Amino acid sequence: MPAAPDPSDDAGDLATLWQHLERRWPENVIEPTLARIAALTDLLGTPQASYPVIHVTGTNGKTSTSRMIESLLRAYGLRTGLFTSPHLVDARERICLDGEPISAARLLSAWTEIAPFVDVVDANSTADGGTSLSYFEVMTGLGFAAFADAPVDVAVIEVGLGGGWDSTNVAHGAVSVITPIGLDHREYLGDTIEEIAREKAGIIKPGAVAVVAQQELSAAEVLLERVAEVDGTVAREGIEFGVVSRGVAVGGQVLTLKGLAGEYPDVFLPLFGEHQAHNAAVALAAVEAFLGGVGALDIDLVREGFASVTSPGRLEVLRRGPSVIVDAAHNPHGAQALARAVEDSFDFAHLVGVIGVLSDKDALGILTALEPVLDRVVITQPTSARALDADALAAVAVEVFSDDRVFVEPELPEALDRAMGLAEEAGEYGGAGVLVTGSVVLVGDVRRLLGGPASDPTRRED
Known about the structure:
Elements: H1 10-22, H2 35-43, E1 53-57, H3 62-75, E2 80-83, E3 95-97, E4 100-101, H4 104-127, H5 135-149, E5 154-158, E6 173-178, H6 186-189, H7 193-200, E7 209-212, H8 217-229, E8 233-236, E9 242-249, E10 252-258, E11 263-269, H9 274-290, H10 299-307, E12 316-319, E13 323-326, H11 332-345, E14 350-355, H12 363-370, E15 376-379, H13 390-401, E16 406-408, H14 412-425, E17 432-437, H15 440-449
Helix pairs in contact: 1-4, 2-4, 2-5, 3-9, 3-10, 4-5, 7-8, 11-12, 12-13
């Protein structure tokens, strides 16, 4: 393994670190074992046990909900760590301290700390016929170590994939959050809602408070069984907490939320869509559970926390004239929520989609969910080795949209140009727009093209 980078040259050393990680087992492939990450954290002195953890899983809404939880905790004056995945542009987005991506110097310091132990775990694992630590396992170790070194008052940890066997599950969440569960990553998690729910329920630890979003009945039953098994406590959306009312507002929406300890009116959330209102209710209940015993939260701090929330790549408007909106929906469940949010929060007379998906995703389900809100689509492909070929995706799109509504531009810059041209042809700028969706990778690509943050070469995967 390469030696740990010297922090004297942050840019060069970060590039070396990214290259090192990219040579590892990819994060979209999982193995049902916590042995390697447990070995690493044990050698590090179990940093994830040095601060309380709020652990978040689900199929969709995990990142937005995690960001809302973190923002509320920060409004309360707590020093926060936030671990999310995948990233859009820069891998440092995955590890945030006090709401900001970790600095290069802090990340390299964490790598210097854990690199010798990574080598030990790699050597022991391969000697036993196993594999080295994966990309995601090393990122998890970096996050845990950075949060311990900060130190943080609380860490909000988003699961990478699944739950029980996810490397983040060596942490013991005092509060376990389960956002809506749908069918995704079936090759690893199972073919039914019940199987997927059982895997995600693995993050609910003995004595934890489980904050559960609205679920299909079959998923809810599995989650409640797990809570009973570990003698936990449950808070259910629609019973113990929920959305009382919501209204569309300029730049987002205004909510009245029912929490575990009170009602919170006139809460402005600068995110679009009814699904984000439900994510907000879940986030509020999670923070109430974490701060248990304080009664109703301070309404001014709640409003401050929600008003400060950002969720890049989630119905994010990147430009106007015509409007270009990006959303990281990459499965049918997410695409359905996106379509509802477009109808709810925008008033486009003509909307052109730019769509690219990865080959292991349900392309037909995604396209079918989006068809009612898209007048025409430009098919492209993300810059990922796992991307579905544009012509293959176009063949599926023709089944859904008909041939005269489908255009193909494999290269993203040309796809964006074509989509904006089609939107302009439709008439007034105010009534036409472009929606880019289908893959986290694609959204990150667009954010870079249209002036997003400086990038690093690390790949993102859905």
